[in-house]
Design a protein that fits this description.
Chain lengths: ~110, ~525
């Protein structure tokens, strides 16, 4: 063990970079939504909020409040507003503070 | 308990229904499950009639509150035409005839009904605490009236004498294992007695389901026992479909069946890895976990979710499998498991730990109403896939071979799991050939009640639902396979085993605490 410890110190490497290489299977994992502010309308946001099975989505005035910490990546919001929502592809969401997981997205789309 | 003469019904389900109806009256069917209303004064005799009929077991017992508390018993008939029978009994006062003396499988539910509805068996026997934590306070909601007196704080009193002592273990256990408390009575090495506390993670899922639409409810049901998401979700969806009188499109039903068999495959791979871990076989564990990971990746590639959430929807299926991916990737992933299993079966130090360990007899399994590989390893050919759902269902045209063994030990359970994994791989291929789709039929309003079932990797999952005119749930009952089989775990541990056998027995049961603490 001391040999490995000394070897790591000498090389300045104690472990591999993370991730060591990209994992193609990650592409098929469900990921939280990413929102397109210009496609978001109040009506679409209200539909998404109603469809969300948890407390991940809410609307406050002209803003969509998205709590990534409460999102299960079920994809229901994308189904009711496919033009405004895409899978983010991001599943490594760790944060040192809870508020950092809450995102405010401006609703910039116009009702048609 | 009053003495009741055994009076077994004849050889068919219809004859048993007639025998029960002679004690009460027939009511409307619940989606293919005949229902009989039994007056409370005839409940003991009705229970005796069903319990003494060969190949009939008590599958579930639960209550619902209305003008009066209604007690429902679900009987599974495993004879020529497998199916279910429901008896319904109104409880006028705070007590009903004790049933667990006649059907021991009823005891856990007697305890649960007392906690949730405040009604209890009339014999005054102590009832265990099974769901509500001891320090719950009055603010923790229950499904009905709170009990007049809290249940026994821990468990039915038992004597510990001589050289035996009680060894507490849990509820916090090694990393990644669910909260579970073992009260282990031992003389040093031998397991003299074992009782479990399973209430540490009670989440009140059935309480939360009240007032939900079916779409909202499926989301919660999938998470009641996440490792049986498809089975529990399917059972609840089937209950609602029975209540609404609709049949899912055949291709959507086959989609559910593909997901259910994938769920069985990855769970049996996980149980294999757990058995290796429990027997200290690190290389075997790593090999089984590689197979497990490959199977989970197949799930994600085929259905978009490693644990198959979101596949089942009320009236059909929300996601269709990528058949090309399954045909290309699944054989390799299954072969990985098969190769690992072959190596384990030729490893004497592994087999030696499994044989004659955690033995259950067929009679114990029948009396306790056990299900799944645990029951099949004792020789009972119980399998909910053999019971046709409304419209027949996918397993009517593509019936599974029910794998059984006879020795009832850990090795028998392992063999059953391996046999079932092979069967699942073949069934998936056949369902894909017959065609799958993501289709749903809408559930019409109007209300109703229904019973649904599916065979999870842990055994039969049952669900009961009552819908109001607007299609919202007024009472939902979820009974995953784990809720059934934990009651056989302590018997298996007591059967001439030592301390170090317990993790092996637990791995061979492969249950979840979430399934009982739902």
């Amino acid at each position: 063990m001391p040999l490995w410890f000394a070897r790591g110190l000498r090389r300045g490497v104690v472990t591999t970079r993370y991730p060591a290489r990209s994992d193609p299977s990650a592409a098929s994992l469900p990921t939280p939504p990413a929102f397109r502010p210009r496609q978001l309308t109040v009506r679409a946001v209200d539909q998404m909020v109603a469809e969300c099975p948890g407390p991940a989505l809410s609307r406050a005035a002209g803003t969509l409040v998205f709590d990534a910490g409460a999102c299960t990546a079920c994809g229901r919001c994308a189904r009711v507003a496919p033009h405004a929502v895409t899978p983010s592809g991001e599943f490594e969401l760790a944060s040192t503070t809870r508020p950092a997981l809450i995102k405010l997205i401006p609703i910039l789309g116009e009702e048609r | 308990m009053t003495a009741v003469e055994p009076h077994a019904a004849g050889g068919t389900r219809d004859q048993l229904v007639d025998a029960l109806a002679a004690l009460g009256s027939r009511t409307a069917e619940h989606g293919g499950a005949p229902a009989v209303r039994i007056p409370v004064e005839a409940l003991e005799q009705a229970t005796q009639t069903a319990a003494s009929t060969p190949d009939v077991r008590l599958a579930d017992m639960f209550a619902a509150d209305g003008d009066a508390t209604v007690l429902r018993l679900v009987w599974a008939d495993q004879r020529d035409k497998p199916g279910y029978i429901v008896t319904e009994t109104e409880i006028g006062g705070g007590e009903y005839p004790p049933l667990s003396g006649i059907a021991p499988a009823a005891f856990v539910e007697e305890c649960e009904i007392y906690e949730q509805f405040g009604v209890r068996p009339a014999d005054g026997k102590p009832l265990n605490r099974v769901m509500l934590p001891p320090h719950d306070g009055a603010e923790l909601p229950t499904l009905g009236h709170r009990p007049a007196q809290p249940p026994a704080e821990a468990h039915a009193p038992h004597l510990v004498g001589g050289q035996a002592f009680e060894f507490p273990f849990g509820p916090v256990r090694q990393a990644g294992v669910e909260s579970l408390y073992y009260g282990l009575v031992t003389s040093g090495e031998e397991v003299v007695d074992l009782y479990l506390f399973t209430w540490h993670k009670h989440r009140g899922v059935e309480w939360r389901l009240r007032g939900k639409s079916m779409r909202e409810a499926i989301f919660l049901a999938e998470r009641a026992e996440g490792l049986s998401a498809v089975a529990v979700g399917w059972a609840l969806a089937a209950a609602a479909e029975a209540a609404a009188g609709v049949t899912p499109p055949p291709a959507a039903a086959r989609t559910r069946a593909v997901a259910l068999e994938l769920e069985r495959l990855y769970n049996h791979a996980a149980a294999t890895a757990a058995l290796c871990q429990a027997t200290g076989l690190s290389v075997g564990q790593a090999a089984a976990e590689i197979a497990l990971e490959r199977l989970l990746r197949v799930n994600a590639a085929a259905f978009g979710h490693r644990y198959l959430f979101g596949v089942v929807e009320p009236g059909g299926a929300g996601r269709a499998p990528d058949a090309e991916v399954l045909r290309r990737e699944l054989p390799g992933a299954y072969d990985e498991l098969r190769r690992t299993a072959d190596a384990l079966l030729s490893t004497n130090s592994f087999i030696d730990r499994l044989e004659a360990c955690g033995v259950l007899t067929a009679e114990q399994a029948r009396r306790l109403g056990l299900v799944g590989p645990v029951a099949r390893a004792t020789g009972l050919a119980t399998d909910a896939r053999r019971a046709p759902v409304a419209g027949g269902g996918p397993y009517t045209t593509t019936p599974p071979n029910v794998v059984t063994a006879t020795s009832g030990d850990v090795f028998a359970r392992f063999q059953v799991m391996l046999g079932e994994a092979a069967e699942s791989a073949q069934l998936i291929s056949r369902f894909l050939d017959e065609g799958t789709a993501a289709e749903c039929v809408p559930l019409p309003g109007g209300g109703g009640t229904g019973l649904g079932w599916a065979e999870s990797s842990r055994g039969e999952a049952l669900a009961w639902v009552t819908l109001d005119a607007g299609g919202r749930i007024t009472r939902a009952r979820l009974r995953p396979g784990s809720a059934r089989n934990w009651r056989g775990f302590d018997d298996a541990c007591r059967s001439r085993n030592v301390f170090t056998d317990i993790p092996i027995i637990e791995a061979s049961f492969w249950l979840t605490v979430a399934g009982i603490a739902r």
